[in-house]
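To: structure subgroup
Subject: Chain for Friday's discussion

All,

I'm putting the inputs and outputs inline so they're searchable in the archive.
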Amino acid sequence: MEMTAKISGSVAIATLKGRFDAHEVPAVAAWLQSSQQSGLVHILVNLEGVNFIDSTALSSLVSGLKHCREKGGDLYLCRLTQPVRVIFELTRLDNAFTIFPVEMDALVAFSTPC
């Protein structure tokens, strides 16, 4: 899996490509933890190139979501491929996460007060 990370304003963004499975979770979990320890509580994970996701990867995203919300932030997802969207729907995690079709929509949502 490839992961590229950047910061846009107050939002940490990771773009993932390839298989997001137990072998790749440590790198993503470390990035999530590092971002949160740096004070970034608005996190966006772009799954545009992910063609497979397993339960360990889902768990790492849920954990990241929990930690963001505990600190008054949120973790959004965007650009889910069809195979990944099906997994989110089957596990009903599509109800737990805010999912956007494109990255810009998520960035706008972060900047819009509730």
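Points worth raising on Friday:
The chain has one domain: 2-111.
The mean pLDDT is 96.

D.
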